[in-house]
Amino acid sequence: MTSIIKETQSIKEAVTFINEIDANKFPRLISRIIQKLHLKGERTFSEEEEQKLRAALSLDKRALNLVLETSAFILEQAVYHNIKPAALQQQLEVIHLNPEKAEVFSQSWAAAGPELVEKLKRNIFAPKKLEHVGWQLNLQMAQSSQTRLKSPSAVLQLGIKSEDSEAQENVFVEFNHQQLLEFYNKLEVVQGQLDSLT
Amino acid sequence: MSSSHAKDPSFLGGRIPPEIESMSRNLKDVDHELFRKLLKAVVSALEGKDCREVMRSVAEGSVIPQERLSHIIAGMHRLLSEAIRIPPSSLKQEAFKDDLRMLKMPEDFITDFSSVVFGSRRAALEAASSQKDPHLPTLEEFKWRVDVSISTSSLSRALQPSVLTQMKLSDGTFHRFEVN
């Protein structure tokens, strides 16, 4: 398998720092990074936490940044290639990570990797995504133009989230019995198509 | 409990709406032909069509002053609207006619009203009036496609299916979104 990490100058420097980190503290660090890896754009550690880390690991600001970024990069590459844990360990030793640290990476990856891949698959971006469906079944008794109705109507609430904003847009759609049945049949066709893929 | 009322209350309710009372008064010495023209125009209006031209030409061709005509038209509109609101299972044709007889209207006119309310045009009238009722948008068009994401910037082999749907609603809005 081709190496997933090229040994650049930056990597060499990071490896040096990583190798010096206390072996007891390293597993938790990697574990935390891998947990937050699927959240694009979010910092793994808050400003306060980074300050504590610098003290705990005796690293200055630049060194800590390099360690965190490189560790994240290693894990991202592992996810991208869906590499096996044993292969990951081997490749990390090739770039001169000491065996102890390489094993930590490999074990974290083995433990949290599959779930991370699933999260990333679900997170594939799209301009708008359906996040939530709410529904209501009503019995309409009357309206301005009609008394004594007793007609069932369903209301679907579609919670649609835009890729570039936090706000969710709610779309309400009303169906009578016939319309709901037609919609259901169309969805069954789509489901059939999805089922035929697997 | 008084039992003097053998008949159920009129479909018009306890108190006759003023437009309908006024119409009854103004229908005196209106001939059948004029009545039918007016009724036809009012039915068209209830179906949602624009009747200004028709109304104008009826008014111009008649000796009856315009003000009286407007009372008649208003009354016809109200009477038909109220009758259409009640499902035929609750308001039967004979009861409807009886209620109109209480207004002391010529029998011919009663028959004409009755044939609108209980005839073939009723469905169109009901459909047109329910348009104005409050309701949420309904689904007019639903298009979809199934995609498979083969590869992304995070995953070299994703192979993740997803469905892209596009909904067109009755209020004219389009919504395109992905469902996974």
UniProtKB/TrEMBL annotation, chain A:
Top-rank taxon: Eukaryota
Cited Pfam families: COMM_domain, COMM_HN
Domain COMM: 129-198
InterPro entries: COMM (IPR017920), COMMD10 (IPR037361)
Residues spanning the membrane: none
Residue ranges the record marks as coiled coil: none
Name of this protein: COMM domain containing 10
Gene name, Swiss-Prot/TrEMBL: COMMD10
UniProtKB/TrEMBL annotation, chain B:
Source species, domain of life: Eukaryota
InterPro entries: COMM (IPR017920), COMMD5 (IPR037357)
Residue span, COMM domain: 138-180
Pfam entry (one): COMM_HN
GO cellular component assignments: nucleus
Family indicated by similarity: Belongs to the COMM domain-containing protein 5 family.
PANTHER family in UniProt: COMM DOMAIN CONTAINING PROTEIN 5, COMM DOMAIN-CONTAINING PROTEIN 5
Protein name per the record: COMM domain-containing protein 5
Taxonomic lineage: Eukaryota, Metazoa, Chordata, Craniata, Vertebrata
Name of the gene encoding the protein in the UniProt record: COMMD5
